[in-house]
Fold:
Amino acid sequence: MDYKKSNAPGNTITRDMMSLSQDTGNVYETVRIIGKRANQIGVEMKQDLDRKLQEFASYNDNLEEVFENREQIEISRYYEKLPKPTLIATQEYEEGKIYYRNPSKEKDQF
Structure:
């Protein structure tokens, strides 16, 4: 899922973890699933931001020569306003867009 098109809220909201954990039956497993997906989204966002900011990198650094690049500031502000990876991952989990499995539970079934 593209994190830029996410309809996740921009601020933190209170959630009932018992209702979220109905699929797995375990609150801690649900938090682990959401946490791992949030880490994946965070890494993707960081790589995307680094790639965009790399275009503005200056390789001749002087202490006297410090300037602000307007486009670089705008890109940084855009990424700051995006919903946090945890909120995006929770939204994906609620919508059923995350695939997860537990190999130890699958082992017990066989």
